[in-house]
Amino acid sequence: MADRYLTVAQVAELLGTSERFPRRLIAERRIAFVKVGRHVRIPERELSAFIDANTVLPIGHRRGSLRRAA
């Protein structure tokens, strides 16, 4: 078992959100999770994959595409 399994509270802390956000991700099945009895755990690799999949990269500066002020 090389992967760490995180609690909802740990995931919320890592994401900088309230516990409600990871719980909503779980309820909407937007992130993979493991049920251990009545407890829910999120594998660290799944959290990393979720973050990578939802990362928005900046648009490179394109010359001539922006209008200049008069």
Structure characterization notes:
The model has no long low-confidence stretch (mean pLDDT 90). The protein starts with a strand and ends in a 17-residue tail after the last helix. The protein is of the alpha+beta class and 70 residues long. 37% of the residues lie in helices and 14% in strands. Strands 1-3-2 form a three-stranded antiparallel sheet.
Number of helices: 3
Strand order in the largest sheet: 1-3-2
Mean pLDDT: 90
Structural class: alpha+beta
Terminal CA distance reads 63 Å
The coarse silhouette is elongated
Question: What is the oligomeric state here?
Answer: single chain
Total strands: the figure is: 3
Indicate the low-confidence ranges by residue numbers: none
Radius of gyration: 18 Å
Sheet having the most strands: 3 strands, antiparallel
Q: H/E order of the elements?
A: EHHEEH
Percent of residues in helices: 25-40%
Tell me the β content.
5-15%
